[in-house]
Design a protein that fits this description.
- The protein has 273 residues and is mostly beta strands.
- The protein is built from two helices and 20 strands.
- The chain has helices at 4-12, 16-34, and strands at residues 55-59, 64-65, 69-75, 79-80, 91-92, 97-108, 111-118, 123-130, 136-137, 148-155, 161-164, 178-184, 198-203, 208-209, 215-223, 230-236, 242-248, 254-255, 258-259, 263-269.
- The strands form six sheets. The chain has a four-stranded antiparallel sheet with strand order 1-3-7-6, with no helix packed on it. The protein has a four-stranded mixed sheet with strand order 2-10-8-5, with no helix packed on it. A four-stranded antiparallel sheet has the order 11-12-16-15, with no helix packed on it.
- A hairpin with a 2-residue loop joins strand 18 and strand 19.
- Helix 1 (4-12) runs antiparallel to helix 2.
- The radius of gyration is 40 Å and the shape is rod-shaped.
Length: 273
């Protein structure tokens, strides 16, 4: 069986003019084949000279963040953000803080910022990671190959107080003046004062609150180190049978600018057997 070219040859081989035209046609076909068939295909893009910018991520928070802080992405050159929402696809290590994507903004061709907010009752490190491939070069051709991250220490634990006192041996109630200890979970911004404590007493005989709930004295700070404040005081109850409460109101003290929540110490006071 003859090929297409063989059939062309058999038709034109007997005429010199036809042989010339055949040779030109075959030459043109060869040229088209060498150029990819004349289909107009794009030549491969040379990416060897394209350099993808590197990135550094920084936080403007102090060593320990207790409130919102800014994260800044600084690139060594212009980039292309290819994600559909126009935001860099970062990841975070845990729930110590949250990043609000709506705050992501372009400051310049090489700088972007976003706001992170510590979550309540958190303490420890928190990391934001920008993985490799998160962005492209300015032409949108090559993906980044570098991962970058920033780590921020978070502390939003409220300072809370623990009251403690020991009844007389063999008793479940108190019988007279009692030493009470207040231990805080962390160092306070300013010392607790005795005036911040609120004492109330309920007369078990009359079933009425009393206007003379007892006296706090000898209020002393015994420790302000080892990441906590400790205080002691002597409570002297009124004579009789009383249910007593010593309250530390919310907002009485702060630690790192974060106020405490309300805490109570309650105890029963009875005459000695």
């Amino acid at each position: 069986m003859f090929s297409y070219i063989d059939r062309l040859s058999s038709r034109f081989v007997h005429s010199p003019g036809r042989r010339l035209r055949l040779a030109m046609a075959l030459g043109l076909m060869a040229l088209l084949c060498a150029c990819g068939g004349g289909g107009g295909g794009d030549a491969p893009v040379d990416t060897s000279n394209i350099v993808v910018p590197t990135v550094t991520i920084t936080s403007d928070a102090p060593a320990v963040a207790k409130g919102p802080f800014n994260l800044t992405f600084t690139f060594s050159g212009p980039i292309t953000i290819y994600s559909a929402d126009g935001v860099l696809p970062w990841a975070t290590s845990n729930g110590n803080a949250s990043v609000d994507k709506t705050t992501f903004k372009k400051v310049s061709d090489t700088k972007y910022t976003v706001v992170a907010t510590p979550n309540n009752w958190r303490k420890g490190d928190w990391t934001l990671l920008l993985p490799a491939g998160a962005y492209k070069d300015a032409t949108g051709v090559k993906y980044s190959t570098q991962a970058a991250s920033v780590t921020q220490t978070i502390d939003t634990q409220l300072p809370f107080a623990t009251f403690s006192a020991t009844p007389p041996a063999g008793q479940v109630f108190f019988t007279g003046p009692t030493t009470v200890t207040i231990s805080f979970s962390t160092l306070l911004d300013a010392d607790l004062t005795v005036g911040a404590l609120v004492v109330s007493a309920f007369d078990l005989d009359t079933q009425q609150p009393t206007a003379s709930p007892g006296v706090i004295s000898n209020f002393v700070k015994t420790s302000g180190i080892n990441e906590k404040n400790v205080y002691t005081f002597l409570y002297t109850p009124p004579a009789g049978k009383y249910s007593v409460a010593v309250n530390l109101p919310a907002g009485a003290v702060k630690a790192g600018g974060i106020a405490n929540e309300s805490t109570n110490w309650s105890a029963l006071f009875m005459p000695a057997p």
